[in-house]
Give the backbone structure.
Amino acid sequence: MPSFKETYEAIKEDVSKGEKNFNVSCEMLSEGMQCRVTMGASKHEVIIDAPVGLDGTDQGASPLLAILGSIGACIIAVTRFWALIMDIKIESMTVNSRGHINLAALFGLDDKMLPGYDKLEPVVRIKADAPKEKVEEMMEKVFSHCPVITNFNGASPIKPKLQIRE
């Protein structure tokens, strides 16, 4: 398995080597709102659910919480990439993500409201061995190159396809 630097250098030499497809499968389970999410070639599995008050069993995070977790996890991963690129040692880092939603829109009770988060606010706390200006420069790169932030800002259209089984 190549190191980050080897992967980075190979893609730097030929950007087509950076092309990847990712696959995730979600299967509805019989309890509450549970679904099994199977991800990637290594078949990582997590259970996504809903709180009890929304007919779930609370045995896993809700899809909305998973979004917030994905934002924070992606910011941390991309920061680690940029820290390697810019030769910065990160001593500690946390991302606390907050999202605001009104469930009335989700339930179709008010179609003027957004049926999703109307605010997403990740707060990054970082300590590194570099001057403040260099850390700020790195974080500008992170925020402008983070795929989850990019996708949630509407860069990639989502085109659902329906297949009805008989």
